[in-house]
Amino acid sequence: MHKSIEIDEKIFQDAVKFYGTVFNIPPLASKIYAYLLFDYEKVGIPFDEFVEVFSASKSSVSTNISLLLNAELIIDHNKMDERKRYFFINDGYKKIRFEKIVQKMKDELKLLDDLDHFKKNHNGYDEKIEAYKALLNKNIINIQESLNKL
Predict the structure, then answer these.
(1) Residues 87, 100, 139, CA angle at the centre, nearest 5°?
(2) C-alpha neighbours within 13 Å on the C-beta side of residue 106
(3) How would you class 70 by CB atoms within 10 Å of its CB: exposed for 0-12, middle for 13-18, buried for 19 or more?
(4) Tens digits of per-residue pLDDT, 91-105?
């Protein structure tokens, strides 16, 4: 069997390290994700190729693919005339990722507002907290405006 795509080893290793940390995923899941980044033509990578390229067992490849699918980091398709599943990067994930970030910032803002409200009943005002809340609000607006363009 041959590789469907050409990869750059250094960029691949950097991507494995980066996405493993950012997405908090196991090494093999990170390798699968990083490998799929090189599928520029969107040909899709079959399951067997991951098993061969990473010299990993079918069960560990299967487990890690399931993890990536559940996290919405990758998607899969079956081609009309084949039983084989092909895997791709989920391009929609960039938007999903930032929507999650915005939601966390909104949740934190709500918590800070609640704390602030409670503190005001106890004669407290914190300049740094207000500056932090302003920063959160500004970033929420910036991210949402950019998300609308995606």
Answers:
(1) 130
(2) 10
(3) exposed
(4) 888 888 888 899 999
